[in-house]
Amino acid sequence: MPRWAEIAYEAIAPVYDDFTAHHDYDLWLGQLLPKLEKHGIPPGRRLLDVACGTGKSFIPMLERGWQVTACDISPAMVEIARGKVGGRAELSEADMRELPVFGEFDVVFCLDDAVNYLLSSEELEQALTGMRRNLGPGGLLMFDVNTLEAYRNFFAEEVEVERDGRRMIWKGLSSPDAEPGSIAEASFEVEPLEESAGPAIPPELHRERHFPESEVRAALAAAGLECLDIYGHHHDAIPKQPLDEVAHTKGVYIASALS
Ligand SMILES: C[S@@+](CC[C@H](N)C(=O)[O-])C[C@H]1O[C@@H](n2cnc3c(N)ncnc32)[C@H](O)[C@@H]1O
């Protein structure tokens, strides 16, 4: 299986937290967790965070007293997460298209458009099947996907962020007319502005696929999951229904295993 995402994240890992410093997980999870609680989270407080990156999506859960297992395809991202939490979480490298069964979890997360790095509905179905196999009795799955708005804007524009003596450059190669189900690309590179800022990172491609709601629903059903709720939100992270591909930047899905 192609490992585009691993290549892209091995390159971006050293600066990922700087580039995404504005992503506020306390705000985001503060909005999303009540939507999960509405469906009755089992009491074990065991979380599996699939595609955990540098730990931004699970560290707030550790702080809330959850027991965390997490994995990612990129060894460099996992290493950074390990540096932050040491032995407080069980971390490993794994490709979500071939997800091992790590245990029985009350909640499985796959957050911040990690799912969009899957480039076909078959890959989405494989990943969702793996996530379903990790759900304990009554467990809930929550993941988000980027909407068309994200591929027509963020993936179609150039963004430069200067921090700690380096310039991080995101060049979206998509278009304002990106079609449902299309693959969008963006290149990411780093230019050091000071000697102390570390080496340059040459351009590396991020390749994501848009998944329309109908395709996600079909993949959920094929993976043996029941779709319980779908929300959309913009940068304010306030979940709204129904999901709107143009008004929202993200769609959020909540599911449980089909009985
Ligand atoms: C935007 S980051 C989000 C990371 C983390 N969930 C967060 O919210 O900060 C997307 C992550 O998905 C991971 N990823 C992409 N494809 C993957 C795959 N097939 N299996 C496991 N991880 C994958 C990348 O390595 C990257 O760490």
Polypeptide structure, described:
By secondary structure, this protein is an alpha/beta fold. The chain has eight helices and eleven strands. A seven-stranded mixed beta sheet has the order 3-2-1-4-5-11-10, with helices on both faces. A four-stranded antiparallel beta sheet has the order 6-7-8-9, with helices on one face. Helix 6 links the parallel strand 4 (105-110) and strand 5. The longest helix has 13 residues, at 25-37. The radius of gyration is 18 Å and the shape is globular. Residues 5, 9, 51-53, 56-57, 72-74, 77, 95-97, 111-114, 117 line the site of S-adenosylmethionine (SAM).
Give the SSE map:
Elements: H1 4-12, H2 16-19, H3 25-37, E1 46-50, H4 59-63, E2 67-72, H5 75-85, E3 89-93, E4 105-110, H6 121-133, E5 135-146, H7 148-152, E6 158-163, E7 166-172, E8 183-192, E9 201-209, H8 213-222, E10 225-233, E11 250-257
Parallel strand pairs: 1-2, 1-4, 2-3, 4-5
Antiparallel strand pairs: 5-11, 6-7, 7-8, 8-9, 10-11
Helix pairs in contact: 6-8
S-adenosylmethionine (SAM) is lined by residues 5, 9, 51-53, 56-57, 72-74, 77, 95-97, 111-114, 117.
